[in-house]
Amino acid sequence: LVTGLKAGLYLDGREGEHWNFQSPPIPKHQLGKPVKCVDALSNSHLPNFGPARDTRAQQWEKECVESAGKVSIEPSEQPVIRPAPPSATPKISDVIGRAVDKFGPYNRLNNKEHVVALVDEDMCINCGKCYMTCNDTGYQAIDFDPKTHFPFVREADCTGCALCFSVCPIPDCIRMVERESPYVPNRGIPPTSIP
Q1: Which residue of 15, 40, 125, 180 has the fewest CB atoms within a 10 Å radius of its CB?
Q2: pLDDT for the residue numbered 147
Q3: More confident residue, 100 or 60
């Protein structure tokens, strides 16, 4: 316990906002391997399974041949030079109570601030758990594209409940982002007589 706490405090002081305590940022990946950026495929929205996977592989092979293999070689990472941290490592007293100001009564919440789910197509494995969860809870805000089978969240119907986020088996595949338009709740059929 003490070692984990020390490691968490050290990473909080060294790595900053990119880490979630002891969890590093997750790069885009598919089947545990990094997703290669192929310019020709960036706007085609091809899934990573079935015949589209073969199309992706052929396009990647073509890019490698045209660039004489340069695109297949990742740029070598320079050794990380660790200068002294700009600030001291936080103490336990700095961490205790850090989230207290985030608790409070419901009426302190701003009803104008809402989030919606955003699915990363490069990381999606098309398992359908987000779709099933959203449909089972009654929101039905997620559709699947008939050709690519990628889930698409309809912003007008998404309530920001984050159920899809919680059932997704791939970390950081679904992110909750700020809603661009104001949220208008759907209360069902409006009454026929308005006083």
Answers
A1: 180
A2: 81
A3: 100
